[in-house]
Amino acid sequence: MQTRRLFATLAAVAAFSAPLAAQDPAKDKPVTVEQVAKNTESESKRVANRTGKAVRKAGKQTEKQAKRAAKSVKKVYSRKARQEDKAGSF
Asked: What is the pLDDT of residues 39-86, one digit of tens each?
């Protein structure tokens, strides 16, 4: 079983490293300061959008949870009122 796992791991490594080895090294360009700044700016915008979405989603979830809790409390009191009406009518 260990040899199968080792073989599977080696096969996966070989499969993923083959495309990397086949790339043309002449296409590799040195990283410029402008490119780093551009990438950093776009990454920060992406993270800010993602964080904002998460905050809005969390706010909506708590509102829904509050409504759900209020409904359950309302049902309990409504049930108690019906039971009291039923017991009082006899």
From this structure: 998 898 888 888 887 778 777 778 888 888 888 888 888 888 888 888
Q: How far is CA 10 from each of CA 3, 22, 29, 32, rounded to the nearest angstrom?
A: 10, 18, 30, 36
Distance CA 58, CA 64 (A): 10
pLDDT value, residue 53: 79
Q: Buried b / exposed e across 39-74, counting CB within 10 Å, b at 16+?
A: eeeeeeeeeeeeeeeeeeeeeeeeeeeeeeeeeeee
According to DSSP, residue 22 is labeled: T
